[in-house]
Amino acid sequence: MHVPTRPAAPAVPPRLARTTGKRAGAVLCVLFLALLALVACEWGPLVSLDRWGADGLHPVAVGHHGWTRFVHWLSDRLWDPWTMRAVLAVAALWLLRRREWLLVAWVAGTSALGTVLQQLLKAAVDRDRPRWPDPVAVASYQAFPSGHALTATVTCGLVVWLLWLRRVRPAGIRTALVVGAVSVVGVGFTRLYLGVHWLSDVVGGWLLGAALVAGSAWAYDAVTARRATARGELEDTRK
What we know:
This is Phosphatase PAP2 family protein. The chain is mainly alpha-helical.
């Protein structure tokens, strides 16, 4: 009995996907650099906005112990950077079973680059975290950008990209998009609620993480397209 197979062609033309990824990455980079400049020069309106958000959430966290413990669990367990990296490790094992060696290296490299960039930026900007006389949480290292927000964005973005790249059913991609969006927004909220980050730290993590995923996807498509062209030219010379 003949079993129909899925078409090999992607839902979006490869050239269009590369162009879209390149443009998205460029826009996200510009937005992140603009935010970085405002943070570095301590732009007054941005500082006021950060302070307003922190001052509004901190009394809620102090006054609601049960809810704050739950938010702690979300931030330090469910959406912790190491949990996010474990998700990528599972994705890498799935790719290894499929012998997708280049993709495994690409995913690992993108994740590692995100970690390196955030640590370099934290050291370079050297921004203090919010300080409270009655803190509900403590975090180490400098504030900008948020490592939790960046890691969650990179992880969820890469997972969705991998599912799209390997033609997983649309329902699976939609589910991953919803779970990813909830995780990215949720982890940002937990860092603000716990009073360990400013709003601009979280937005910076989102922007940089999204830029990394877009740039990585574009670069991977460009490299694989070039390799496919080289293979085609080599086969033509052998005919």
